[in-house]
Amino acid sequence: MRPLLALLLGASLLGGCAGKPVDPSGTWINQAAIDAATEHGKLREALLAYGPNLEWRIQPQRRLATYSNGFEQGEGQLRDEDDNRWRVDFYADYHESLSLSGGELLQATSDTWPEQRFTRPATPVAVDVPLGRSFEHALYSAYLGGNWTIRQGLGNGGLVLFQPDGRVEGLPGVERYALCLAGDCAAMSGEFDSIWLQLGEQGRTWLFERDDQHLSIFEALNRAQSDEMPDYHKGELRWRLEHMTR
To answer: From the CB of residue 148, how many other CB atoms can be counted at a distance below 10 Å?
Structure first.
């Protein structure tokens, strides 16, 4: 009799655990966009195909959920719907539906966006970093990580390292970089991918092309009038870098 009672009690406990909602708190990033960009090289195409949202931060204790799309952020009230499903209410009666499935955070298809999937970052950053930084850190590591050698341009033969925090080592005249993810920089570069390169307080936009082994950085030529938004097109090749096997 005692073995039977123990078995029934164990089954009851297991059943209770199985039905317990999973904690959604913390940061979730759009890893699918990062994977697509890294595999195919075209950053903006990947962000448009798998975005537009790049990161969610869920705070159940404060009933808040915030997202970043690389240009702007949105904050809404988190409301429970049922086990592992939530609704995020924003201003103007706009809302998003979130759920957890198989270790992923799913943003449901809506009138505004297609379904989007998010995962926990493999290398978490500090909880107090600005929203969107976790996605950038993961993207920079995957997309530009490793050792690059200058094959053409100033510093030919030198080693270049793009650090996940936006620092650059070995690229002449450059200390920091930032990839264009969305917003005005994307509108100004159109079909091209763009990168901001900076030395001290001075910086400018460059266009680039990336494949499995090479990163080509071009001058950005502005074809717009002085009173119009810049319209960048590829100019002279400034650097051609080759990715070295890790």
So the answer is: 22
Instruction: Kindly state whether residue 16 falls inside one of the protein's structural domains.
Output: no
Residue 17 lies in a domain: no
Structural domain span for residue 70: 23-141
pTM (two decimals): 0.88
Specify whether 163 is located in the same domain as 135: no
Element (H, E) at 21: none
Q: Are 181 and 71 in contact (CB under 8 A)?
A: yes
Residue 91: predicted pLDDT: 85
In the DSSP assignment, the letter for residue 83 is: T
Question: Is residue 115 predicted with pLDDT exceeding 50?
Answer: yes
Strand, helix or coil at 24?
coil
**Which one is predicted more confidently, 123 or 185?**
185
Assigned domain for 89 exists:
yes
User: Is 173 a member of any domain?
Assistant: yes
Query: What single string gives the DSSP state of each residue in 178-240?
Result: EE--SSHHHHHHTTSEEEEEEETTEEEEEEEEE-SSEEEEEEEEE-S-TTS---EEEEEEEEE
Question: Do 114 and 39 belong together in one domain?
Answer: yes
